[in-house]
């Protein structure tokens, strides 16, 4: 059994990949999950080539059985869980009146329902870690859209607002068990997911994944007496 272990969904690229790499560098054995097997295995190979311990599990976060399988494989592989990073997400832009139910459902399922289900499946292991060192942590990638809802992103904004609320409820349920939770609420981050906006917001002017990684490392360095419910990341001039 490793001394520390972490599970990162949406771990094949962008924010999730960089968080996973940082956790691996900091001594965590890793499970990473993403929907596309080829892309996930490429990410895992990159991490393994850097000397990190990585288990990759391809899964669709819209499917409950896939979520259960990821949690189960992590438990069977490592036997412990100190950090859960619910990072998988999807955004589909469009006005409410033109959004069909399928596009609504996939955003609610991946961005909110999956966070709830993965958290539920991982709570027993997180409680065990919390009883051991009182530093178990759930990190949920929300969005600044969950704090400042955006036109054209109504479903995404609503789901991410739900993640913020879920995070706060989780704190109230689990903090006495040594399990903390934080919602990360970034604006545009320079990742493949924001390719659609780069004509209007240059990548060089976006929040960087290194900013998110620095925040995660800060959270994990806090004493057991310190809970940070959320962190907002905004660009200069973007404050409401």
CATH topology: Rossmann fold
DSSP strand count: 7
SSE class: alpha/beta
CATH homologous superfamily (4th level) name: NAD(P)-binding Rossmann-like Domain
CATH architecture descriptor name: 3-Layer(aba) Sandwich
Count of helices?
6
Main pleated sheet: 7 strands, parallel
Helix content: 40-55%
Coarse morphology: globular
Give the number of domains: 1
**Terminus-to-terminus distance:** 47 Å
Mean pLDDT: 95
Taking Cα atoms only, what radius of gyration do you get, to the nearest Å? Answer: 17 Å
Protein name: Short-chain dehydrogenase
Keywords: Oxidoreductase
GO molecular function, one term: oxidoreductase activity
Family: Belongs to the short-chain dehydrogenases/reductases (SDR) family.
Protein described:
Residues 4-196 form the Ketoreductase domain. This is Short-chain dehydrogenase. Keywords: Oxidoreductase. InterPro entries: KR_dom (IPR057326), NAD(P)-bd_dom_sf (IPR036291), SDR (IPR050259), SDR_fam (IPR002347). Belongs to the short-chain dehydrogenases/reductases (SDR) family. 45% of the residues lie in helices and 16% in strands. By secondary structure, the chain is of the alpha/beta class. The chain has one domain: NAD(P)-binding Rossmann-like Domain (Rossmann fold, 3-Layer(aba) Sandwich). It has a 7-stranded parallel sheet with strand order 3-2-1-4-5-6-7, with helices on both faces. α4 links the parallel β4 (83-86) and β5. α1 packs across α6 and α4 (101-133) runs parallel beside α5. The longest helix is centred in the middle third of the chain and has 33 residues, at 101-133. It is globular, with a radius of gyration of 17 Å. It starts with a strand and ends in a 7-residue tail after the last strand. The mean pLDDT is 95.
């Amino acid at each position: 059994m490793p001394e520390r272990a972490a599970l990162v969904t949406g771990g094949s690229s962008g924010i999730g990949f960089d968080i996973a790499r940082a956790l691996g560098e900091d001594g965590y054995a890793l499970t990473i999950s993403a929907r596309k097997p080829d892309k996930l295995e490429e990410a895992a190979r990159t991490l393994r080539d850097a000397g990190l311990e990585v288990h990759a599990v391809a899964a669709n976060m819209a499917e409950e059985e896939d979520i259960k399988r990821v949690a189960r494989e992590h438990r069977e592989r490592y036997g412990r869980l100190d950090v859960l990073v619910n990072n998988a997400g999807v955004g589909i832009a469009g006005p409410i009146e033109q959004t069909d139910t399928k596009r609504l459902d996939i955003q609610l399922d991946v961005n909110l329902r999956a966070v709830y289900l993965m958290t539920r499946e991982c709570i027993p292991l997180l409680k065990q870690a919390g009883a051991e060192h009182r530093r178990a942590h759930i990190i949920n990638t929300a969005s600044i859209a969950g704090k400042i809802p955006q036109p054209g992103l109504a479903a995404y904004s609503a789901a991410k607002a739900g993640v913020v609320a879920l995070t706060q409820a989780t704190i109230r349920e689990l903090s006495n068990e040594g399990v903390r939770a934080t919602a990360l609420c970034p604006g545009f981050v320079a990742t493949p997911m924001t390719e659609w906006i780069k004509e209007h917001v240059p990548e060089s002017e976006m929040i960087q994944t290194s900013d998110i990684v620095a925040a995660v490392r800060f959270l994990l360095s806090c004493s057991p007496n310190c809970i940070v419910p959320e962190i907002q990341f905004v660009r200069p001039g973007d404050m409401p």
